[in-house]
Amino acid sequence: MSLQLKSLVRKELRARLRAMDTATRAAESKRIVTQVLTQCERYKQAKHVAMFLSMPSEVDTAELLADSLKAGKTVYVPRYEADTMDFLRVYSLRDIATLPRNEMNIAQPEYHVSQSVLTPEATEVEMASPAEAAGGASVTTTSETTAPTTAPTTATTAHSNTTTTNTTPSIKESAETVARENPLDNGKLDLILVPGLGFTAAGDRIGRGKGYYDKYLTRIFTTFAANGWTAPATIALTFPCQIMDSIPTDATDVRIGHVLF
User: Fold this and answer.
1) Which residues pair with 155 in a beta bridge?
2) Over the stretch 186-204, which tens digit does the pLDDT of each residue have?
3) pTM score above 0.70
4) What contacts 103, CB < 8 A, 6 or more positions away?
5) How far apart are CA 150 and CA 14, in angstroms?
6) Beta carbons within 10 angstroms of residue 140's beta carbon
7) How far is C-alpha 128 from the chain's CA centre?
8) According to the UniProt entry, where is the signal peptide (predicted)?
């Protein structure tokens, strides 16, 4: 019954999103992002932030990406691998703008990054505009700037008297590439900005059916608790039309701490 109800709810929410015109979506995105930038203390105080690279039907995160990088925050964005999602660090707007796209046409980082991206010149946020970063302009990449796609392996790594699961693939680093930082390995994550198809004001969430965020949030909370690390806060960014009085949930659904709409 829950699956049938979720299917009906998703159908309703997709219809609501389709009914939004481009101008309304842009204005609502600007209003919501301005709230984050000017009123959200959790965002202002966070030093390490994970956020989604927005699709056209979502709140536009381009300005948040630019602001976070300019402020010197550590920024992580999603990478999808089969039925698993990880967040990996990005270093500049140019880094984001040149990310390869997966089969769903979503820009995502490789597990390793060129050393050239880490140079002071390459990390200047002025090197790419927010629109380029979010829009993911088509860029031809080479083996010099991207690492091969490899599924994660599990290895135990010591970090300051704690033991964590290393989720970075075991590709040998070279003078040209280094592994992108992963908060599951180092415990450095203060805030996760979460997308979704719909929410309740209390934080119940329904996604698009793949379970990426529910599984990731469960994994991050479990890993952080096991190592005595402070769990990150979670904030959903969503349009008012995506707010519902109730959403069918089950044991695998993770409630979001705060919903901003």
Assistant:
1) 166
2) 999 999 999 999 999 999 9
3) yes
4) none
5) 33
6) 7
7) 19
8) none
C-alpha triplet 33, 35, 36: angle, nearest 5°: 65
Query: What residues are paired with 89 via a beta bridge?
Result: 76
- 3-state DSSP helix/strand/coil percent for the chain, to nearest 5? 35, 20, 45
Cβ–Cβ < 8 Å for 125, 84:
no
Question: How far is Cα 152 from Cα 149, in angstroms, rounded to an integer?
Answer: 9
DSSP string, 96-151: HHT--B-TTS-B---SEEEGGGGSTTTT-GGGS-HHHHHHT------TTTBPPP--
Cβ–Cβ < 8 Å for 155, 168? no
Q: Buried b / exposed e across 245-256, counting CB within 10 Å, b at 16+?
A: eebbbeeebbeb
CATH topology for 1-117+175-259 is Rossmann fold (3.40.50)
* Tokens of residue 201, six digits: 């004001």
- Cα separation values, 68 from 2, 91, 95, 225, Å: 38, 11, 14, 26
**What number of residues does the chain have?**
261
CA 197 – CA 57 distance, rounded (Å)? 9
CB atoms within 10 A of CB 38: 9
Residue 60 burial by CB count (10 A; 0-12/13-18/19+): exposed, middle or buried? Answer: buried
**pLDDT tens by residue, 94-114:** 999 999 998 888 899 999 998
